[in-house]
Amino acid sequence: MHFEANPPGTEAVVRVVTRMAELPADAWNALAGPSPFVQHAFLAALESTGCVGSDIGWEPVHLALFRDGGLAAAMPLYIKHHSWGEFVFDWAWADAYRRHGLDYYPKLVCCVPFSPVPGPRLLARNDADRGMLIQAGLKLTRDLGCSSFHVLFPAEPDHAALQTTPLLHRSGFQFHWHNRGYASFEDFLAALTHDKRKKIRQERKKLAGLGVTFRWVEGRDSTDADWDFFHRCYADTYARHRSEPHLNRAFFATLRETMPDKLLLIVAEKHGEPVACSFCMKDGERLYGRHWGTLEYLPGLHFETCYQQGIEYAIAHGLAVFEGGAQGEHKLARGLVPTATHSWHWLENPEFRAAVDRFVEREADAITHYIDELEGPFRRENREPA
């Protein structure tokens, strides 16, 4: 695919790059920052192991802005032929297009595949370059005949730059845990309301009575057997929902080889035999809960493996935030609280663009009302001011 744009009044050129391997890893990572999900190695692993590709509806068309021969800005970008693996749900928009005899797919999506994790999307050092990437994304949308252009889960600098564009803003939220300087897990529990603190302690006591213990396995210390077990659990979770996992065993093997210090497995063992496992990623500030599975149902095992152990790890390692993944009001009882997320959307069809604009405005009001009605997990004296 050939695409090249020279932004007016600049000496820069924007090109489409269909393989991460064609881009310099050091220059990309310098723009991306610490988030593991936009690191060159993570995105390249998705491509090299066949987790993304045109044959499965995730066609890479990354935008790269070059200045004086060097990579000055970039955007992870995909042509999508469906809406799976995005976690900003636009199925109703696609259905509305279909009912009016129009094609919603293909569309152009700036995101990290299968990873609803807020972070950098417009990889640039200043708003001028972010603006160039946005304009290049809009131009590519038209050149390819796509219905729309979407930027999912951008971080604050990107969010601020997008506010100056005609793209439509869509509000969302996830449940994140925030470290308030807890000295230990018990210190954290003391901040919760009595009923929530009691429930977690009871669950932990029951699991201990069943002989369940936990191991934190750092990526650099992990073995093939650890990853074989995790992937067995991960695939079983999908099988229970009659679907296939998005990420294959080769993908996790590649991550273990290329970015081991960003990986964590939480392994639950019953009388010394593994029964469940969760997979997390991390940087110097955050732990990101990603996938889990279990081979045996035990009461409270999901909550402990996916949330409480992650929180305890974050406290022990001085991390500021634990992101528990998309959706899930049940996380509130575990000390994770609503945190705003964002996405931005451009629809080429002006009538549908106006309709979606009205929709996202109503949706934002509904989300605000919903969050206001939630009962927080913390004792009154430990709640953050509104």
Low-confidence stretches: none
The averaged pLDDT comes out at 94
Class based on secondary structure composition and strand pairing: alpha+beta
Order of helices and strands: EEHHEEEEHEHEHEHHEHHEEEHEEH
Oligomer: single chain
Task: Please state roughly what percent of the residues sit in beta strands, choosing from under 5%, 5-15%, 15-25%, 25-35%, 35-45% or over 45%.
Answer: 15-25%
Largest sheet: 11 strands, mixed
CATH topology of the largest domain: Aminopeptidase
| Structure annotation, total helices | 11
Structural write-up:
- By secondary structure, the chain is α+β, with helices and mostly antiparallel strands.
- The chain folds into two domains: 4-173 and 339-373, 3-Layer(aba) Sandwich (Aminopeptidase); 180-319, Aminopeptidase.
- The chain is 36% helix and 25% strand.
- The strands form two sheets. The protein has an eleven-stranded mixed beta sheet. It has a four-stranded antiparallel beta sheet with strand order 1-2-4-5.
- The protein is globular, with a radius of gyration of 22 Å.
- The chain starts with a strand and ends in a 13-residue tail after the last helix.
- The model has no long low-confidence stretch (mean pLDDT 94).
- InterPro entries: Acyl_CoA_acyltransferase, FemAB-like.
- It comes from Thiobacillus sedimenti.
- Pfam families: FemAB_like.
Concise synopsis of the structure shown:
The chain has 386 residues and is α+β, with helices and mostly antiparallel strands. The protein contains eleven helices and 15 strands. The strands form two sheets. It has an eleven-stranded mixed β-sheet. Strands 1-2-4-5 form a four-stranded antiparallel β-sheet.
